[in-house]
Specification:
Number of strands: 2
Number of helices: 11
CATH topology of the largest domain: Helix Hairpins
InterPro entries: Calcium-reg_actin-bundling, F_actin_bund_C
Radius of gyration: 55 Å
Protein name: Calcium-regulated actin-bundling protein C-terminal domain-containing protein
Structural class: mainly alpha
Keywords: Coiled coil
Shape: rod-shaped
Helix content: over 70%
CATH class of the largest domain: Mainly Alpha
GO molecular function: actin filament binding
Number of domains: 2
Distance between the termini: 44 Å
Pfam families: F_actin_bund_C (PF18060)
Length: about 375
């Protein structure tokens, strides 16, 4: 296989695999001095590959031109083409990362494509598998941490809602108590007004009876005199005629007084009846309002109880989610420890060239550790 064929094969690998190949090729000379820069190149190329990201293997000509701009080594399109042709680029529609790396570090194409990769394939695959498990563990921990935060937020919201409903319930209960007190007072007032109306009616009856008695007495006297006129002798008859005339013409003060008393009693009774009727209507209305207030208070109490139950359930779910997140973090920590131990072992075994492969794996692990709490073995983000 020619060097260009080998270059093409390497260039078809993912960005990180190309960077690892280059790091293994460079390791005997620089012992990983440019390793972090290679890591950053993987990030840069991945950010410019809009379709596949870090899973990509090449950039178009414009994308590669932007790479040079990003690293402050701007070139014209023609200058870039001239340089990249020297490191095996034959088509500028798709330019692999390995071509760029060979050019930027000034390495010989033949030396790079034939550089030993060092690490045992089975060991590398095992290391990759361990890193995948670390990734899965971290993803699980992050998902559960997110779920725990969401559950905690929901619990807080529901607790706030429960308190609001409880406060509203207290207000409704206070209103119901006040309405009941008003209804009771209005009922008592209505009863009192009814008694006053009854008393006024009794006064009317008494006054009416007095008027009737006065009128009846006068009528009885009139009939007696009339009979006397018809049956008595001349002297007695004349006396009866005079007395009857006097009876008809005299100012009957007791009767007038009785009628006046009757009219006053009737007015008083009418007023008392009106007041009693209004008091009864008011008492009926306030009693209805009290019933409605009590129903509202009962409804509010039910809502408050339901809100409290929901808040308690949300709190329990929050605690459970937090425990699950903690457990997931513990599992992630265990996977990290396992991965670090294995990588340390393989770094001791690896040849000089294979160190590049191990460095990238350790760097991936360090990147994941940035998302662990520092008290749990995580490293600070920069």
């Amino acid at each position: 296989m020619s060097d260009l064929d080998k270059l093409k094969e390497i260039g078809s690998k993912k960005f990180q695999e190309q960077a690892i190949w280059m790091l293994n090729a460079m390791w005997p000379k620089d012992q990983g001095a440019n390793a972090e820069e290679l890591w950053n190149y993987v990030e840069l190329f991945g950010s410019l590959e809009l379709e596949n990201g870090k899973e990509g293997s090449d950039l178009d000509e414009l994308g590669m031109h932007r790479v040079f701009e990003k690293i402050q080594k701007q070139q014209t399109m023609q200058e870039m083409r001239n340089h990249l042709r020297k490191v095996g680029v034959t088509s500028f529609k798709k330019i692999s990362m390995i071509n760029f790396l060979i050019f930027i570090y000034g390495y010989d194409l033949h030396e790079v494509v034939n550089a030993p990769q060092g690490a045992n394939g089975a060991e590398v695959e095992k290391a990759k598998k361990i890193l995948e498990e670390v990734t899965e563990a971290f993803n699980s921990a992050q998902e559960k941490a997110t779920a725990a935060k969401k559950a905690a937020d929901e619990a807080k919201v529901k607790a706030t809602a429960a308190k609001k409903v409880a406060d509203e319930c207290q207000i409704k209960q206070t209103e119901a108590t006040k309405a009941a007190e008003i209804a009771k007072a209005d009922e008592e007032a209505a009863i009192a007004r009814q008694k006053e109306a009854q008393a006024a009616e009794e006064e009317v009856t008494k006054a009416l009876n007095e008027v009737k008695a006065q009128e009846q007495a006068k009528e009885d006297k009139r009939k007696a005199l009339q009979k006397k006129i018809e049956t008595a002798g001349l002297v007695a008859k004349n006396a009866a005629i005079q007395e009857l005339a006097k009876l008809d013409n005299e100012d009957d003060l007791p009767l007038r007084r009785a009628k006046t008393t009757l009219e006053a009693a009737q007015r008083k009774a009418a007023k008392a009846l009106k007041i009693a009727t209004e008091a009864k209507e008011k008492a009926t209305a306030t009693a209805k309002a009290a019933d409605e207030a009590k129903q509202a208070a009962d409804d509010a109490k039910q809502k408050a109880d339901e809100a409290k139950t929901q808040a308690e359930q949300a709190e329990a779910e929050s605690v459970s989610a937090a425990e699950a997140a903690d457990q997931a973090l513990v599992e992630a920590e265990q996977k990290v420890a396992e991965a670090e131990a294995y990588l340390a072992e393989q770094q001791k075994k690896a040849t000089g060239a294979g160190q590049g492969t191990m460095w990238f794996m350790q760097r991936e692990l360090d990147e994941k550790k940035k998302y662990m709490p520092t008290r749990k073995g995580g490293i600070a983000k920069k």
